[in-house]
Amino acid sequence: MGAGRDPGGDIHPEYLALIEELRRSAPSNVKIEISGDTVIMQRPPSAIHERNLSVVRRQFEAHAPVGYLPTGNMDLSSPQVAKLRNPDLTYLPEDALVTTENQVPAELALIAVEIVSPSNPENDWVGKLRDYPLMQIPLYLLVDAARKSVTLFREPEAGRYRMREDADFGEEVHIPEPFGFVLDTSVLLPY
């Protein structure tokens, strides 16, 4: 049993209280996440990061399923595997967002989109690639401006994604249903 879990395997309430205290004392633009016993704090993103996120989000919004809303500032919680992650972009059911809570169950998310942080790429390429399939998030889209690549992971099974599609900036990435479109990566900027 890890330090962040109670005997039932859930994220320990005292651990969550510590995270909330960190959030209150940290600058408002610092992202804080939990992966097992590890707390991850990230500095604010660059302008290129935000631009790439915006052009990806615009494409997803044109194909989002009815009844789902985009969010880029919502904690996805998966207490059964002691995970609390905050993707750059996700789509959640509208009714899941009718709450004063700052987290929703991760299994409600249709996708997690991350723009890889140049200061901590391991968080996206290793930590989140480990956590998102455990959290039962069906799609994980990773935009890496340093590598000039986009990778789509899908079909979580037994704690990992079974399928992977890689593309360089300028190549197509096929986003499956419920979105069902081809992502234009030619509009993305490298670092």
Q: State the CATH superfamily name.
A: tt1808, chain A
The CATH topology is tt1808, chain A
Distance N terminus to C terminus?
40 Å
Number of helices: 3
Helical percent range?
Answer: 10-25%
Please state how the strands of the largest beta sheet are arranged side by side.
3-6-8-9-10-11
Report the sheet-strand fraction: 25-35%
Report the major sheet.
Answer: 6 strands, mixed
Structural class comes to alpha+beta
User: Architecture, according to CATH?
Assistant: Alpha-Beta Complex
> In the CATH hierarchy, what is the class?
Alpha Beta
List unreliable stretches of 5+ residues. Answer: 1-9
Counted beta strands:
13
Global shape: globular
Layout of secondary structure:
Layout: H1 13-25, E1 31-35, E2 38-42, H2 47-61, E3 68-71, E4 75-78, E5 83-85, E6 89-93, E7 103-105, E8 112-115, H3 121-134, E9 139-144, E10 149-157, E11 160-168, E12 172-175, E13 181-184
Parallel strand pairs: 4-7, 8-9
Antiparallel strand pairs: 1-2, 1-5, 3-6, 4-5, 6-8, 9-10, 10-11, 12-13
